[in-house]
# Entry
Amino acid sequence: MKPLSRPVVKLSVGFLCLLVLMAAATAALGSRLPAGIVAFARGTENTLYVTLAALSIAVVLGVSLGALAGLGPALADALLSRAVELCGALPTVVLLAIVRASEPIPAGTGFVLTLGVLRGIEMARLLRGEVLRVSGQDFVVAARALGVGSVELFFRHLLPHALGPLLVSGAFTAAQVIGLDSALGMLGLGGTTTWGGLVAAAAVSGRPAAAIAPALGAALTTAALYVLGDAIDDARSARRRRTWARDDRTRGLAAEPEIIGDATFGGRH
# Structure
């Protein structure tokens, strides 16, 4: 069975689509629905907005820095490596809490920018590796010999081969954003209208039953995104193995006539 055709993957994709439809339906119907459903749907909508904003920043920053490090001067590559090491040394939760405590920056804006930059640098590291891996292949060398510029070379030849790692990293980034946003919201350091904020509000008001829906929403959405990311990675690995096997067969067929000819020539002598 293909990785993307697994029942658990289809269930995960269906759950994510259901969340989007519920948020859209609540925005359309508004006050006609019960207050609990409206609150959960608003939390879902705000959580999705935060996730999409942080993911957009991460993708734009990751593609830009990854292309610069892979195709640019050695200084850009060295600077990206140092940035990756610095981000790996910083505890994300502590850094987000510090940004949240900063008065000049709104809570939601600081969270989105910080996590978008951190994940964008990680995406840039992945994209840089893919660019360096593909740059030595024949079609890239031929494109450079024909005078193709760096920008066209990247978007036309290199970026399509890096979409797999970017999709996997994007799914994991979205899951991390939702998890961290919910965790900080439960601690009172995040938004008050996201899933984590709804859980914190339910705990403060002494209504634990009201925390079940947003807590389950955050947990199931994070799990669905991780399942989707793993399925994309498995599909990418299977496709790469098929490509390697086809290349091996091609090389074997190309070498076979020479071997047979030598054996036949030797037999005649």
Notes: The radius of gyration is 25 Å. Confidence is low (pLDDT under 50) at residues 258-269.
